[in-house]
Design a protein that fits this description.
Blueprint (H helix, E strand, L loop, with lengths): L1 E8 L8 E6 L7 E3 L27 E3 L5 H4 L2 H6 L5 E4 L1 H25 L7 H9 L1 E3 L6 E3 L3 E7 L7 E7 L4 E4 L22 E4 L11 H17 L3 E5 L5 H14 L8 E4 L1 H12 L6 H8 L10 E3 L3 H6 L7 E5 L9 H8 L5 E5 L8 H6 L4 E4 L2 E4 L3 E4 L9 H9 L7 E4 L4 H15 L3 E2 L6 E5 L1
Parallel strand pairs: 3-4, 4-5, 5-6, 10-11, 11-20, 12-15, 12-16, 13-14, 13-15, 16-19, 20-21
Antiparallel strand pairs: 1-2, 1-22, 2-3, 7-8, 8-9, 9-10, 17-18
Helix pairs in contact: 3-7, 12-13
């Protein structure tokens, strides 16, 4: 059975994942994998409001790999444009998506109001998305029309994240990895091994780089926090609300409760991250063995002495009254909005401040500019001279690094007919393509936006 695979987002760029698989004979099913926002300097760039290059009403199934905005952020817009099919994901992904889409709606409405434009979608579109949502546990076989079946495999990226495995009656498979986790991770189960895959569509965010190992990154975190305490400074950590925040809380919990760090005021100043952390607490059975053991022993793995959750605006403003040393974990992770901007406006000019970046910073974002060493920024209309120390720990990324990505492919290399390397900046994608060709002798390509390929399942 022939299918046309087309790349409508996440090709030549990290964000905006959107892949379409449809039969060349026009039969069912027509399958979409992810429908995410393209993110850059702003949370919702203008390109997100452009019409889809396909007819949403003709899509039968939308599979969601995980609940990051660059994989789910345009789902309500897809519905607004006519999608009436079934949305499928794991239960944890659906639970996080409900929180994320509600939060995204507020940001989108605020941006539209400032720009004097219509928002990308409305509350009714979010509500409709949730009524179309169907959940399945990992490994459960989902029967689809056309003698196809689907399974979710653990991607180890964030809670509920999954690779989408589609198998035909002949046994030929295509797998969409979504984003793959930084295995081994303190909080999550490792990435599942793939086998007998015919076609692979994979991410490549860190396709040209290698992360610090977990012990090294934890030691670096301890070093940065200890220095902040000793210098009586402020440590700002832009928070990725899903996974990064929960991992940081888990590791700070271990370091403080073990006595390896002195107690210090820590503020989680992100209502979204607080709500997502509650979702993590509801799904502890999907966490790593170590995290499950700690939770069963009665430890609240996301709480420790000195930690405060600041949900209200008043509580957030009150952080300024607490004298240093202190740690502020606040959204958003790339500085494209959220409460971190208020803290950066207040503290970036102070040499005793440290800005710690613990995740990927997309090109054009404030976080990326600060990482690249810019010394002057404008935040909420105010010019700021950056005198703070800017540090980064790549090991806290929830993405696979280069060697991990190659290992994922290696397990199923003998059966692979083609690997499509996507969801990365061109430099990273092309570097990974070359290494896959050189080291594993597989046919790997980096598709461009809008490119199509014919595959046989």
């Amino acid at each position: 059975m022939q299918f046309q695979l087309s790349f409508h987002g996440g090709a030549g760029e990290v964000t905006g994942a959107n892949f379409l698989l449809k039969r060349t004979d026009g039969g069912t099913p027509s399958i979409l994998i992810d429908c995410g926002l393209v993110q850059g300097a702003r949370f919702c760039d203008e390109c997100n409001s452009k019409p889809f290059p396909y007819k949403p009403q003709e899509i039968d199934y939308l599979f969601i790999t995980h609940a990051h905005a660059d994989h789910i952020g345009r789902v309500p817009f897809l519905i607004k444009r006519g999608f009436k099919g079934t949305i499928l994901s794991t239960l944890a992904t659906r639970d996080i998506a409900e929180v994320m889409l509600a939060d995204s709606l507020k940001i989108i409405q605020e941006e539209a109001a400032r720009a004097g434009t219509k928002p990308l979608y409305e509350a009714a579109d979010v509500a409709r998305a949730l009524t179309l949502w169907q959940t399945h546990p990992y490994h459960e076989v989902v029967k689809l029309p056309g003698d196809l079946s689907a399974r979710f495999l653990d991607a180890g990226h964030i809670l509920g994240s999954a690779m989408i495995e589609l198998t035909s009656a002949t046994g030929r498979k295509i797998v969409f990895t979504g984003d793959l986790g930084n295995t081994p991770a303190p909080l999550l189960q490792p990435i599942e091994e793939l086998s007998d895959v015919t076609y692979l569509v994979m991410e490549s965010v860190y396709g040209d780089r290698v992360h610090e190992a977990v012990p090294e990154r934890t030691a670096r975190l301890r070093e940065v926090v200890a220095r902040t305490i000793n210098e009586r400074g402020v440590l700002l950590i832009p928070a990725f609300s899903i996974e990064r925040t929960q991992t940081l809380l888990y590791e700070l919990n271990n370091l403080i409760e073990s006595g390896m760090l002195s107690r210090v005021p820590v503020f989680l100043d992100s209502p979204l991250a607080i709500r997502v952390t509650d979702v993590y607490r509801r799904h502890t059975k999907e966490l790593s063995d170590g995290a499950q053991t700690a939770a069963k022993d009665g430890d609240d793995i996301f709480n420790f002495p000195g930690l405060q959750f600041t949900e209200t605006v008043e509580a957030s403003k009150a952080i300024n009254m607490v004298p240093p040393p202190k740690i502020i974990i606040a959204g958003a992770g790339m500085g494209h909005g959220g409460r971190i901007l208020h803290h950066e406006r207040r503290y970036l000019a102070d040499p005793s401040t440290t800005l710690l970046l613990v995740g990927y910073q997309v090109v054009g974002s404030l976080g990326r500019r600060l990482l690249d060493g810019v010394k002057n920024v404008v935040i909420h209309g105010d010019p700021i001279s950056v005198r703070a120390r800017v540090e980064s720990i790549r090991g806290y990324s929830s993405h696979c690094d280069r060697d991990c990505l190659i290992s994922v492919v290696e397990h199923t290399a003998p059966t692979l007919e083609k690997v499509f390397v996507a969801m990365g900046e061109p430099r990273s994608s092309l570097a990974l393509v070359q290494r896959l060709r050189d080291f594993l002798d597989v046919d790997a390509v980096a598709p461009r936006q809008g490119e199509e390929a014919i595959i046989e399942l």
